[in-house]
Automatic annotation (TrEMBL):
Name of protein: UPF0225 protein CVO76_03795
Transmembrane feature ranges: none
Pfam family name, one: YchJ_M-like
Organism annotation: Arthrobacter agilis
Family per similarity comment: Belongs to the UPF0225 family.
Domain named YchJ-like middle NTF2-like: residues: 29-123
Length: 127
């Protein structure tokens, strides 16, 4: 990955992909919000993670583990979550490295649209 590549893995540069969302833009789909949240984890953007979390389930803080290197995002499945929907589900796999060991997080995440903006609600981690 170069400095211009978006951490979420699209072919777009960060400035055209997740960067505008991190600067306050609205995601058009639940999947786009999921990608921007992965990039926020990779870049250590705690404030963005909280701001993109539905107020009904949002924690007070997000403590990112600085020893985790988020490496790759794969969208496995989406259900609704389009530009005309009010709710959606995105299942993803996120590859990471920590203490020299590789790992994989798989989650089926729920999203809702609140006042026109997609928000992360919660998710079920898959084994």
């Amino acid at each position: 990955m170069t400095l211009d590549d978006c951490p979420c893995g699209t072919v777009l540069p960060y400035g055209e992909c997740c960067g505008p969302l991190h600067r306050g833009g609205a995601a058009s789909t639940a999947s786009a919000l999921m990608r921007s949240r992965f990039s926020a984890f990779a870049l250590g953007l705690e404030r963005y993670l909280l701001d993109s979390w539905d107020p009904s389930t949002r924690p007070d803080t997000v403590d990112l583990d600085g020893d985790v290197e988020w490496r790759r995002l794969q969208i496995v499945d989406t259900v609704l979550g389009g530009d005309c929907d009010d709710a959606g589900v995105v299942e993803y796999r996120a590859s990471f490295r920590r203490a020299g060991r590789s790992g994989l997080l798989q989650e089926r995440s729920r999203f809702v649209r609140v006042e026109g903006r997609w928000m992360y609600v919660d998710g079920d981690v898959r084994a």
